Every structure is written in structure tokens, then in C-alpha cells.
Amino acid sequence: xxxxxxxxxxxxxxxxxxxxxxxxxxxxxxxxxxxxxxxxxxxxxxxxxxxxxxxxxxxxxxxxxxxxxxxxxxxxxxxxxxxxxxxxxxxxxxxxxxxxxxxxxxxxxxxxxxxxxxxxxxxxxxxxxxxxxxxxxxxxxxxxxxxxxxxxxxxxxxxxxxxxxxxxxxxxxxxxxxxxxxxxxx
Length: 186
Description:
The protein has 186 residues and is an alpha+beta fold. It contains four helices and ten strands; from the N terminus they run H-E-E-H-E-E-E-E-E-H-E-E-E-H. The longest helix is centred in the N-terminal third of the chain and has 18 residues.
């Protein structure tokens, strides 16, 4: 019996596959399905998108997209939140396109219990290498946010530490404020 090698899956072939729920990502030739978001993850993701979009959408500064597929280089990833400056959104006839083939300007990932922190941070680093300007890695268990910039040492923030934003976004938040959103009950 002759065995033939199966050619490795390409990004183009991956993008032709049906979408999965939760989303699958294409990283280093492999398909990896993200875990289903849980309560804390969903709350932080929804609140961050709402707070950012409240101050950036109407003046057309930027927009925060939850779970947006971004395919660039040799990967297709789905950051928990992908923020694009308005002039970088690849509008098609004034509408938001279905495909984003560029890295976000700011990538935010929220660690879920089933996720590998290194894999999630690896996605942020990949974005930064491709032109992203800012990354946040939010760890709800540790109540910390690791801030990543291109070509710089990461910074670990806690409590009342102010969070850096893109210069175009005039928003002031502390780590404690972000994690304070998790308290909703009596």
C-alpha cells in the first residue's frame, strides 16, 4: 500500500471551511477551536466594547468589534476584541465588510479557564509583529492586565493602575474599574 502525504492546510483553504461556534483559529497550519466564553469573559468583552464604542463610534475615531475574524500573514485569528481606527476599517461602499485581512490596531484577549495563556499571548504578539499598536491580555482570575506594545517590554498592571489606550482614544480606565464591572448582583 502506498501512502501519500497530505498537503498541509493553507490559510486560503481554511477560510473556505464553514465557520464553527465557538470560532476556530488557524495558527501555524493548525486549526484550534476557541473555548465557549463563560460569564466573566462575556461581561468584560461586552462592557469593554460598549465603553470604547460609546466614545469612538460617533466621532468616527475607532470601533471595537467583538469576536472579529482577522486574517493576515499566515494566520486567521479571532481576538476577543479587535479595535480598528476608523480610517483603517476597510469599508466596502460605506458598509462594514465581512472580511478583515489586516491586523487590528489594538487587540484585547480575555483568558478563559480552558485556554493556554501562552497561546493567547502568542496571538497578541503575532498582531503586534504585523503592525498592531497595543495589546491587552486580561486575566480575570489574577485581576491583572498584561499590556503589550510592539518592540517593548510588557507591563503587568493591577488595581488602581491606569490602563494605556491608543492615543486617538480619549478614555481613562483603571484595572480595578474593568474588574469592577464583574460585580452586578446585590
